[in-house]
């Protein structure tokens, strides 16, 4: 197996070709609708992916707002390329030992899925070649590009898709590795290292959706598959493993189909008459709405559309994904013995009408639009024919469970042509020298420094650097906070804060975190109360004092500590007499329920041990 990564990171410098901020907003402005068509690239050929997207015949509704302008609406030419964003991309090139180009030529990359109002994405090659050392293995860097991010999809149906323009035009650094990765675990490590390098520039955006990975996976005898837009880094290994298994199954099915002499009959047959009695399901709904039901014969495919039971992958699901991409809700096939559309002897009538024998299968599609049905069955026939060849190259979308789903054909060079509205940008030796003189600390050096200066455990150091917390860690320590307390706050306590049911994620400022740690150090409340105070801050409290008050964590004085401990010990005096000092653990839990976060745990424990010792020293009666 070979795996390559494409890492896309948003840059926090303002948009790439206008002065708008690179921030997402919920405030909406004007709305307009467009339709897009494919066009030829520089070589005068139409890219397969663009042609496929245009064939779907969708409309696209766009909403602008405070983070977009006429450039994003494609009503005004682009402004000069953002120089700070270019510096970030060139910095990454130098960190990865890539060779910057002498002159940057901005290109138009044809994309007609609605994610760009213009029908193309602006992209520029910044550097080529390079290397990245991870775990003792050197991985090849193919290219580094600077490009626009796409519009944000916010809704839609089978005829119209809705986008918001706030994300369109945010600068993206794209780093593409060679196919030197050999496992999902290794892919995750490479992605972590690249992510840490990007964050070391201190000019990248943070949060969900600001960094995305495209996975390119192939096995021997297979074909390159691109899984596009993976956002869950923890699932990278799962996507790779599942794709490897899927391709192995496809190659196995190919051999079985060839052994059977299977083929695809492209003839589309109207089977509406055999389905007139259908009363439930999408087939019945389509026919009762004046639609059609058409079928396709697959000689030799019987029994292979639903197997094997040991995996979620199905050849029938592959066919259904291509049909959905063509605009219908799905398919019904002959291996679906429990399908409502095939109940009551319908399956037998269909097999008779289609003149199938025991080794043959069929695929049925019903919809109110005959054009959609025919387009979907053409896509099914093409995918079934590809099953006889093995693994077709394609772009797939990641699913939350680690699987992927067909999205569109693989794009190629036919989608590129020069951007005539942006002049070439020379990359001078002086500019590179300036950037080289102030390169940020590399992740390996950061890990070594944290271990050396603060004595932190290797795994904790790794989490700080790879988790994107190095900047906040350094700044809080520079303000005088304890390295151990800062690490615990950033790596354990902050991630444990429950997510907000609505509204943006909880992203406290360094000033707020500094105030929180200072409050514990000064004794305003104990460190055990930090989770409760964080929960109050996440709920909207604006100051640490207010959050401490709302959490009921005012510091317990010495008198209150002694009173609570004596009360608990007195209530459990029999337990103390029976178990002696061993009564400490259950009693500690009772005391902590009343004083957690209001007094340091060590102080509570000391007071409880003294109280138990006093009671044990009393004469028994």
Explain the overall architecture.
The protein is of the alpha+beta class and 621 residues long. The chain has 4 domains: 2-23 and 33-255 and 413-418, no CATH class; 265-302 and 319-378, Gyrase A, domain 2 (2-Layer Sandwich); 443-550, no CATH class; 558-617. It contains 20 helices and 22 strands. The strands form 4 sheets. Strands 1, 4, 6, 7, 8, 9, 12, 13, 14, 19, 20 and 21 form a 12-stranded mixed beta sheet that branches. Strands 2-3-11-10 form a 4-stranded mixed beta sheet, with no helix packed on it. It has a 4-stranded antiparallel beta sheet with strand order 15-16-18-17. Strand 13 and strand 14 form a beta hairpin. Helix 6 runs antiparallel to helix 8 and helix 19 packs across helix 20. The radius of gyration is 31 Å and the shape is globular. The chain starts with a strand and ends with a helix.
Counting H and I runs of at least 4 residues, what is the number of helices? 20
Sheet with most strands: 12 strands, mixed
Mean pLDDT: 90
Q: State Rg.
A: 31 Å
Strand percentage lies at 15-25%
End-to-end Cα distance: 78 Å
Features:
621 residues; alpha+beta; 12-stranded mixed beta sheet; globular
Describe this structure in a few short sentences:
This protein is an alpha+beta fold.
